[in-house]
UniProtKB/TrEMBL annotation, chains A, B:
<dbReference type="GO" id="GO:0032264">
    <property type="term" value="P:IMP salvage"/>
</dbReference>
<dbReference type="InterPro" id="IPR006650">
    <property type="entry name" value="A/AMP_deam_AS"/>
</dbReference>
<keyword id="KW-0862">Zinc</keyword>
<dbReference type="Pfam" id="PF19326">
    <property type="entry name" value="AMP_deaminase"/>
</dbReference>
<dbReference type="GO" id="GO:0046872">
    <property type="term" value="F:metal ion binding"/>
</dbReference>
<dbReference type="GO" id="GO:0003876">
    <property type="term" value="F:AMP deaminase activity"/>
</dbReference>
<keyword id="KW-0546">Nucleotide metabolism</keyword>
<dbReference type="InterPro" id="IPR032466">
    <property type="entry name" value="Metal_Hydrolase"/>
</dbReference>
<comment type="similarity">
    <text>Belongs to the metallo-dependent hydrolases superfamily. Adenosine and AMP deaminases family.</text>
</comment>
<keyword id="KW-0479">Metal-binding</keyword>
<comment type="pathway">
    <text>Purine metabolism; IMP biosynthesis via salvage pathway; IMP from AMP: step 1/1.</text>
</comment>
<dbReference type="GO" id="GO:0046033">
    <property type="term" value="P:AMP metabolic process"/>
</dbReference>
<keyword id="KW-0378">Hydrolase</keyword>
<dbReference type="InterPro" id="IPR006329">
    <property type="entry name" value="AMPD"/>
</dbReference>
<protein>
    <recommendedName>
        <fullName>AMP deaminase</fullName>
        <ecNumber>3.5.4.6</ecNumber>
    </recommendedName>
</protein>
<dbReference type="GO" id="GO:0005829">
    <property type="term" value="C:cytosol"/>
</dbReference>
Length: 720, 720
């Protein structure tokens, strides 16, 4: 048993205290820019340098190190793998000592910690029916001496595409009523066999992660990513990954290109790509919205479209009241585009959602709930979908909001969806939950945070138990593939999430809970709901929050535990340990450099290229075309700019496109069609270059690199 | 009389020697990157700093300085100008000493030199019927005590747009034969009344700049831009211009935006913009070319399209010979896109013009002269023009090549143009002349450089004298708006252009003449031809060479003397004096940052933003969409990326679009329609915001800033 595990048992309490201290310091520090956080490593730190050189001289554990080296020679430096379908290429191999300049003790400490972190994420993903890479699972099983079986793997369940003639809105095939009873318990939905079971407090036996376990795991992870040896080790591994890719690129770039040139029919243009992060309310570009407003006025000037101070008004009257005429409107007066004024000002950015600064127009054109039942908004979205269908190879995953402000929201939203038949084979729907309980509480719309959670999740579990009570909602949920958590991450609540935190029902103050608190409760509910839905053969939901766009590093930690994949992830730059863990678990990140450029980070400083080179799984997404993009094809604009600024190769671009399909809510059937039959396999075996246009050399490089890093941990932990 | 003018007279010879030394050193230096050139100033130069502080302490000429200050107060610090149409805004005024930290002697020296430089460019522009800013002419007249008259102004003459029903290819209205005789004399076309006049060597009295005058003017300018005080003064002025714009922007950005918001109907999307620099052979994007090749094969597989080793082959046979099938082609195998492999490698870039690396396909699809008489190329261009017509607000100025290799080129090119009726109201044609005499000479296609010039310019002057000998050429020339000079500027010939240089007819070595040599002879011929064409009421040609993309700084000097406007201009960064002169004369620069990004300079290091802020007149252009762009709208892609990376405001973008129209070969009629009736006026009076969407505040800022800088020179030179 390693020193680390012993230590750990002794000091569970001590660690908790430490974690809380770190957490507090992180939340406090975030206003102080350019200061080294507790999670970061500085390259030219003199203390570190001295430590390093000491390690080189007195080797603490020569025997162990030698043993490790010989083991490495066996397992890491195997003859190069013989894939059937990968052309020869030049591999980068490191021969000799591999502990990368840390002492054996530090190496063991780090590997133990990383191993436990991996097992934590594996557990959370399984419980929520979310993805976890097969390669990692196999290595983890190997470490524990278990046999990995493909049957143990879980996969999110998505509704397959509708065939010609099938009606996406038909209610006949809805499953029958289970007659269960659903209740919120401590902020999480629970299902009971009947009312009796409720009284006895005996919910169904659906596994989920309770509050205390979550806190314990979180505290462990906080300590881990703030721990010196782990920081140093992961920092060095990441630097190595970067250099290794640069060498790989230098040696094999032309070979990869050759593969692509010899690949008939497929190029970047007809490789499938998914806009993995886009808000429905801003999914059209500014010019499109402008044209739509003008057209609607030409056709509907005399139609009653709005209620103004209780009085019904026509569109003409509404525009008269706003003292403007749609004919005069331009994209300038529309003023929905983010300019220099929005940089570092999320508040100003949010105001840009109001065309001409008038919230009435936002209501009329960009809301599902208004005097015309969201008809215009539905039409705009269907036009955007039409453009995607015309472009053939592009898909998008728009977010619609559920606020948790009242219990009716789901009914209204699904009513809108069904009424206007807002369906396209090129759109996969997501639900975004804004973290704005504090606003509702201040207006006394909800008594406590628990009610917000109830409003969000109870209707979903009820529709899962009995799809017939609300058929429109049940139909809508078929089309929903996941949940997102959204808001300005740079606002922070100052609340520290710990065992002493109030339970949701007790959270009745106006202050917002912390990011992590939100994340845990969303995750716990989704996981529980997914368990029941899978049992019933229904589609499940992925948890894909906004995370690491700004704010504290701990946000990224909460999502490492809970999210299938995240949007943004910029702050991974601030924690090498977390960045390395995101790499090891191939946790996908939907990046939006154009959005960042308008809000948080200049384009050329975006870590996208760095992440891509190191082997993190990234995709490109537009976030808000209305605010950020200029052309008629926002997703292509996003790719084109990234390609130009970062000098991406075609292989890079196609790899990003492939990532976007993998992480998306597209169904198994669609992924098979777009990526190839074996897409669930990892590495070159899972890639069909004829469909993805990603070079097999690249796939082999990625796969071997990941396996190498995982084997470092495995070899360290293996008992002799 | 100032010290400078005296000195100058004494040392004309001395200066020539100095200029030649500088020239030689500049040509030699260009391989040594990051070294400070003779034209540059370094911000942290200790000698300069010390000089500066000395100047502050012992003021050499207190009386003079005081007088200058009071004069400044009168003329520079007038009450703010009262334009009718400019909203109030906050102006940046400098009160007090204005000689910006140089001694009075240095100030006078610099102002005298700059003044003479301005008069040189004014002379060259007039002689070639090219544009020169009215504001500058007025100030120059003021300095000399002349009265400026609007009638003295020259403007290039362009063919007005064809009205509905008019035939752009009709030959009936061609002017009659003048029965003059044309001959080359020392590399420049000359026109004689008759054969007798030829014998007597008595050409018509058309003014042009002779070789020796050009060399003298050039030598003066070389000395000027290498002269310490001028470098320091202009460097400081440019720094001031930058800071001034930053302050202006900070104070007035919202006011400018307000103007635009209140400007009905017009926004960036429907502001006219011209792609001022694009090569016809690469004017389609890669996807377009791919689609076209596939389509042509579907329709024409059995058509004879090519001659292979003397044998006629069908398209199918050609592709069989190339061992490929168009059905399998992708943009990857097409391989025309510039990737990372082309950076700093112009040679590799040029190879990208061959689809699938096969020059046969370049011949078939991208040449005017081939077995199918350039039919495919004409069709592709007409498709590109169709896209521009659909986009409504976009225009382009494609370049077609005349090599000067043989006397038939014009006939063939204009035959192609007329046969396929390659005309669109959204295209303005330019002729590009590649600087590759050395290749033709090596193959013995031409006996000397003079023959190349003859092949290029003699047919043009002959068609000008008698449009009926070659009606197709005469029609084509109506559509041509200018000449471009193209090739890799970083190759340098090592030849120094001086009075001892061989005349073109004596230039029979294989070595290429220098850039400046090419430029002078192109300019002299164009100027001469323009003189005659204007007399005849024909359209004239602008000289718009590629310049300053790479290579020696002196390229930019040659074009300061001769070009209406240039493409690229990156190297202005290396010479503050030239950069300041480009600013003072508002010499337009068509910049292509995406092209630079693939070839010479990373996007984020592009000086575009800096130039724009300082007030240089820049436009955006695509150069080669086939090689650089990804989307269906290359010009919009170019604007979008610049807007995103440089965070341009809408006003910036519309100002750039307005610049592009101004510098283009669009006719007076079109410019009036696109920019407003008074577009020939400068400053806010010349801007119609309803058409351009450029804020009047911005126009006033630009105008007042230019006037202020010019007045500094004027006040310095004014004798009491």
């Amino acid at each position: 048993m390693s020193q680390f595990v012993m230590q750990e048992k002794k000091s569970a309490e001590h660690m908790r205290a430490f974690a809380e201290k770190v957490f507090a310091s992180d939340a406090k520090d975030e206003d102080v820019r350019d200061e080294v956080s507790m999670f970061d490593v500085v390259d030219d730190c003199p203390i570190l340098n001295e430590e390093q050189s000491n390690h080189c001289h007195h080797d603490d554990n020569l025997e162990k190190r030698k043993k490790m080296m010989s083991r490495a020679r066996e397992s890491l430096m195997d003859d190069k793998p013989a894939y059937l379908s990968v052309p020869d290429f030049q591999r980068v191999a490191i021969i000799g000592d591999f502990a990368t300049g840390v002492t054996m003790d530090d190496f063991e400490l780090a590997c133990n910690g990383l191993h436990r972190a991996l097992t934590i994420r594996e557990k959370y993903m399984k419980l929520a029916i979310q993805r976890f890479p097969r390669t990692v699972s196999q290595i983890l099983a190997g470490i524990d001496g278990r046999t990995w079986k493909v049957e143990d793997e879980v996969h999110p369940v998505f509704t397959p595409p509708y065939k010609a003639g099938e009606d996406p809105f038909e209610t006949k095939t809805l499953p029958e009523n289970l007659n269960y009873v659903a209740r919120m318990r401590d902020g999480v939905v629970h299902v009971y066999k009947d009312a009796q079971a409720v009284d006895k407090n005996e919910p169904l036996d659906l596994p989920f992660v309770d509050f205390n376990t979550f806190i314990d795991d979180m505290n462990f992870l906080i300590s881990l990513i703030a721990q010196g040896p782990t920081k140093t080790y992961t920092h060095r591994r990441l630097k190595f990954l970067m250099s290794k890719f640069n060498v790989h690129e230098m040696l094999n770039e032309m070979e990869e290109l050759k593969e692509l040139k010899n690949n008939p029919h497929r190029d970047f243009y007809n490789s499938r790509k998914v806009d993995t992060h886009i808000h429905a309310a801003a999914c059209m570009n500014q010019k499109h919205l402008l044209r739509f407003i003008k057209k609607s006025y030409r056709e509907d000037a005399d139609r009653v479209v709005h209620k103004l101070n209780g009085k019904e008004v026509t569109m003409k009257e509404l525009f008269d009241y706003l003292k403007m005429h749609p004919y005069d409107l331009t994209v300038d007066s529309l003023d929905v585009h983010a300019g220099r004024q929005t940089f570092q000002r999320f508040d100003k950015f949010n105001a840009k959602y109001n065309p001409v600064g008038a919230s009435e127009l936002r209501d009329l054109y960009m809301k599902t709930e208004n005097h015309i039942d969201g008809e215009y908004f539905a039409t705009i979205i269907k036009e955007v979908a039409g453009d995607l269908e015309d472009a053939r190879y592009q898909y998008a995953e728009p977010r619609l909001s559920i606020y948790g402000c009242n219990a009716n929201e789901w009914t209204k939203l699904s009513g809108w969806f069904n009424k206007h038949r807002v369906h396209s084979s090129h759109l996969k729907w997501m639900i975004q939950v804004p973290r704005i309980y504090d606003i509702f509480r201040a207006k006394n719309f909800v008594p406590h945070f628990g009610k917000t959670l109830e409003n969000i999740f109870l209707p979903v579990i009820e529709a899962t138990i009995n799809p017939h009570t609300n058929p429109e909602l049940s139909i809508f949920l078929r089309h929903v593939t996941g949940f997102d958590s959204v808001d300005d991450e740079s606002k922070h609540s100052g609340h520290m999430f710990c065992t002493k935190s109030p339970k949701p029902d007790e959270w009745d103050i106006v202050k917002n809970p912390s990011y992590t608190y939100y994340i845990y409760y969303m995750y716990a509910n989704i996981a529980y709901i997914n368990q029941l839905r899978r049992q019933r053969g229904m589609n499940t939901f992925q948890f894909r929050p906004h995370c690491g766009e700004a704010g504290a590093v701990t946000h990224l930690l909460a999502c490492f535990m809970t999210a299938d994949n995240i949007s943004h992830g910029l702050n991974l730059k601030k924690s090498p340990a977390l960045q390395y863990l995101y790499f090891l678990t191939q946790l996908p990140i939907a990046m939006s450099p154009l959005s960042n450029n308008s809000l948080f980070l200049e384009y050329s400083k975006n870590p996208l290229l760095e992440f891509l080179k190191k082997g993190l799984v990234i995709s490109l997404s537009t976030d808000d075309p209305m605010q950020f993009h200029f052309t008629r094809e926002p997703l292509m604009e996003e790719y084109a700019i990234a390609a130009q600024v970062f000098k991406l190769s075609t292989c890079d671009m196609c790899e990003i496109a492939r990532n976007s399909v993998l992480m998306s809510g597209l169904s198994i059937e669609e992924k098979t069609h777009f990526l190839g039959e074996d897409f669930l396999k990892e590495g070159p075996a899972g890639n069909d270059i004829r469909k993805t246009n990603v070079a097999q050399i690249r796939m082999a490089y990625r796969y071997e690199t990941l396996t190498y890093e995982l084997n470092l941990i495995k070899n360290c932990l293996k008992t002799d």
